[in-house]
Design a protein that fits this description.
Layout: H1 4-7, E1 22-23, H2 56-64, E2 65-66, E3 73-78, H3 79-92, E4 123-124, E5 137-138, E6 168-169, H4 178-181, H5 185-191, E7 208-209, E8 212-213, E9 217-223, E10 235-238, H6 249-272, H7 278-306, H8 308-314, H9 331-335, E11 348-349, E12 365-366, H10 375-379, H11 383-392, E13 394-396, E14 404-405, H12 406-409, H13 423-433, H14 439-445, H15 454-460, H16 464-474, H17 482-488, H18 499-514, H19 528-535, H20 539-546, E15 551-552, E16 567-568, E17 599-606, E18 609-616, E19 620-623, E20 627-629, E21 640-643, E22 660-664, E23 667-671, E24 676-678, E25 685-687, H21 693-727, E26 731-732, E27 738-739, H22 756-760, H23 770-775
Parallel strand pairs: 2-14
Antiparallel strand pairs: 1-6, 3-13, 4-5, 7-8, 9-10, 11-12, 15-16, 17-18, 18-20, 19-21, 22-23, 24-25, 26-27
Helix pairs in contact: 2-13, 2-16, 3-6, 3-11, 6-7, 6-11, 6-20, 7-8, 7-18, 8-18, 15-16
Length: about 775
């Protein structure tokens, strides 16, 4: 048995290969305008092959964007193929963005400024593109830099041309079902049901789907509310192994399916092996779920995308684990090549009834009405109508003149933004932000000929008109953004990508497979009988086991017409769990202890000997023997699980040097000093963009001190003035005439009713009354 809680971050010779919160791999050196950090297109007067890069929004408008009605549907593949690609992408890659909402150094808010000022790299809009003259750009936050690279490297004293900016992958690179279990011990801890004896995952306690489970709600993240009088300012999002589970209904559906599949498997495995602990049942179910993700992706999904010839060329048959292969997800794969799937997203969410028709109560949804709205799953029919729509409705076909519909280029909704965004422009801007070299550099990397002329583009791109528009915008083939160039290429035979993306995707998938020593086919991960059982399993069977659908297509990724192309679930092969049965040996007594605090104990039999194997949960260390030969109950003294102080690990400190480590029971916590806050990886500190609280206190105390001194000065002056007023006395002689003596007051004229000083104007004695006016 293998503990999947730890394996996916461990590679014996290179423990950081494929680990979460490490830099994305670079297959070519980055192309920054300053050689270190500035994105392509950062300086408007910078020329590439004699031409400036076109604004990404202009590329979207002239080449990529089409109306929602301009959709060519795929004649072969279902909407589930596009959904699976997005789901798998969320298993292997997530690039965190800057956590600061304002430019570093006290600049303007990135939601307001249209200037290039880190971390702001706004998407400029054409002057006539907006109905409001005040909106001239769309906000864009740069991806966070990996610690010690690029601009951030200056804080660590190693800023140099040899240390350009790198971006991070917040997830494990492996195909390990981190969408279900998370990529960190902290998230895994939130997802597990620790009271379950079967090793189950948490489920929603407020809602059920015809008796089946929904994902639990996240405590801190809020999604779009339900409209109407019962709607609120925010509604809870679903909690899953990836934070984007509530993004669109198709993603939510797949996350929900695998939650149910884990709990189904864990319960069944525990029933087969009553002596297993909850932790063992959880880990064994997790192994199976991870294997199914690998099988469905590599056997059923990737060949359809690459085509059989390209799959054989770039991936080929499995030959076993290769410790020299780095499985780390590459920057160009995550930022460009695997984003080809955005061109296959249909503008509508289709929901079907049991007869695979669109019921009046569940009309097709535009994407803009489905983004981050999990309440639609709960209130509008549950999971089954969504799954039927994914199975029986085709995906959008990636046609060069219909690359992306308006739902994605005009009305993309992202949490934290109130305005519609443009996914196509974001993809192009992200590639420039990451310093991805141009299209021709990647063709050369893949052994493809560089394109030099318009004729070359016309021969390579599927549409001559699109090729001409791209050339007019970019001026030279070298300048073309790699994401756009890959999308525009003519498909390979029986494929859904051109030669460039087939090369980049195939190379990455081969690395994910060959560089994973826990790949499901690798020796020692499963028994031969278990591998044979797994090979018969399919996504179609997962649908049968976890929904109310009685019939499904034999290949869930191929569009099927109901009922002609649908098979009864009893004819879809299932997983034979009997090969996971481990009956305890008979013939002797073995006293299992009542339990181990913060750990588990399992009964194992090996070559006739029975023994107890102890283990500790994450964050605890075993004190005592791991394996103990059976003994009658009461005679065995079990080992103890003691808390590990991760903060004392000098060889691999859990927190970045910019953060302070604080030990907690079963874990640790990284803390930052004000005004720094934790980055999304939870281990490093980044500038929050605001002044420290101590500075505000100092400013307040300074203002109070200045105000106090000013008040004291004012009081002294006023008292002095009043004192002078009292001392200025008018002295009248016997004739009624008064005189004003300096410092004594105003002189009165006996023949006048007003003081003479009032009529003298500028001729008054400055000693007579001038101080009085100051305080009155």
């Amino acid at each position: 048995m293998v503990d999947r809680a730890i394996y996916h971050t461990v590679k014996r010779d290179h423990p950081r290969w494929g680990a979460s919160n490490t830099a994305l791999a670079r297959w070519l050196p980055p192309a920054y305008e300053d050689g270190i950090s500035q994105p392509r297109g950062w300086n408007p007067h910078f020329l590439y092959s004699g031409f400036p890069l076109p604004p990404v929004r202009e590329v979207t408008r002239q080449v990529i964007q089409v109306p929602n009605e301009a959709v060519t549907e795929d004649e072969q593949y279902s909407d589930l193929l596009a959904a699976w690609g997005q789901y798998i992408d969320h298993d292997i890659a997530f690039t965190p963005q800057s956590t600061s909402k304002a430019a570093f150094g006290g600049g303007a808010d990135c939601q307001l400024t249209c200037e290039n000022q880190n971390p702001c790299f706004p998407i400029q809009l054409p002057s006539n593109a907006s109905g409001s003259a005040s909106i001239s750009c769309l906000p864009f936050y740069r991806s966070s830099a990996a610690c010690g690279t690029g601009m951030q490297g200056a804080f660590f004293g190693n800023l140099s041309s040899a240390n350009p900016r790198q971006q991070m992958n917040g997830l494990t690179s492996f195909l390990d079902a981190s969408t279900v279990y998370g990529s960190s011990p902290a998230l895994e801890k939130q997802l597990r049901n620790w009271t379950s004896a079967e090793g189950l995952l948490r489920v929603n306690t407020r809602h059920r789907d015809a008796g089946r489970a929904y994902l639990p709600f996240a405590q801190l993240t809020t999604c779009a509310p339900e409209p109407g009088p019962h709607g609120t300012t925010a509604a809870p999002c679903f909690l899953a192994g990836d934070s984007r589970a509530s993004e669109v209904p198709a993603l939510t559906a797949l996350h929900t399916l695998w939650l149910r599949e884990h709990n189904r498997l864990a319960s069944a495995l525990k029933a087969l092996n009553a002596h297993w602990s909850a932790h063992t049942a959880y880990q064994e179910a997790r192994k199976v779920v991870g294997a199914l993700h690998q099988i469905i992706t590599m056997r059923d999904y990737v060949p359809k995308v690459l085509g059989p010839e390209a799959f054989q060329k770039h991936v080929g048959p499995y030959k076993g684990y290769d410790p020299a292969v780095d499985p780390t997800v590459s920057n160009v794969f995550s930022t460009a090549a695997f984003r080809f799937g955005h061109a296959t997203v249909h503008p509508l969410v289709r929901r079907l009834d049991a007869d695979y028709q669109e019921p009046p109560g569940l009309p097709p949804l535009r994407l803009q009405d489905a983004f981050f709205r999990p309440w639609r799953l709960l209130k509008e029919g549950g999971l089954d109508p969504l799954v039927r729509g994914l199975l029986a409705r085709p995906a959008k076909r990636q046609v060069p003149e219909q690359l992306m519909n308006e739902e994605l280029t005009e009305r993309l909704f992202v949490l934290g933004s109130s305005d519609g965004l443009d996914l196509a422009s974001i993809n192009l801007q992200r590639g420039r932000d990451h310093g991805l070299p141009g299209y021709n550099a990647w063709r050369e990397f893949c052994g493809l000929p560089r394109l030099q002329t318009r004729a070359d583009l016309h021969a390579t791109f599927a549409n001559a008109s699109i090729a001409g528009r791209i050339m007019d915008l970019y001026g030279h083939p070298d300048n073309i953004d790699v994401w756009l160039g890959g999308l525009a290429e003519t498909f390979l035979p029986q494929a859904r990508t051109g030669p460039l993306f087939a090369c980049l995707i195939g190379r990455q998938m081969k690395a994910l497979r060959d560089g994973d020593r826990f790949w499901w086919e690798s020796s020692g991960v499963f028994t031969e009988a278990q591998r044979r059982a797994l090979a018969r399993h399919s996504l179609s069977r997962v649908l049968c086991d976890n929904t109310g659908l009685p019939r499904v297509p034999a290949d869930a990724f191929r569009t099927g017409r109901f009922p002609r192309d649908f098979e009864a679930c009893e004819n879809i092969p299932g997983l034979n769990l009997d090969v996971w049965r481990e009956p305890p040996p008979q013939g002797d007594a073995c006293g299992l202890p009542d339990g181990v605090d913060n750990g588990d104990v399992v009964l194992c039999g090996e070559t006739g000997r029975r023994m107890l194997v102890f283990s500790c949960r994450h964050g605890f260390q075993l004190q005592g023997r791991e394996q103990v030969v059976c003994a009658p109950r009461g005679l065995l003294r079990p080992p103890v699980c003691r808390d590990v102080n991760e903060c004392e690990d000098a060889t691999a400190p859990p927190c970045h040097p910019s953060a302070r480590c604080r030990n907690t029971k079963g874990g640790f916590r990284c803390e930052c000093t004000d005004p720094y806050v934790l980055a999304e990886d939870g281990t490093a500190c980044v500038d929050s963009g605001r002044l420290p609280k101590a500075s505000w206190v100092s400013i307040a105390l300074g203002a109070l001190l200045v105000g106090g001194l000013a008040g004291l000065t004012w009081t002294v002056v006023c008292r002095w003035a009043h004192a002078g007023r009292k001392a200025s006395l008018c002295i009248a002689d016997s004739g009624g005439k008064g005189t004003c003596q300096p410092g004594l007051g105003t002189r009165w004229d006996s023949n006048a009713s007003q003081p003479a000083a009032a009529t003298r104007g500028a001729g008054q004695d400055p000693a007579c009354g001038s101080q009085i006016l100051l305080c009155q």
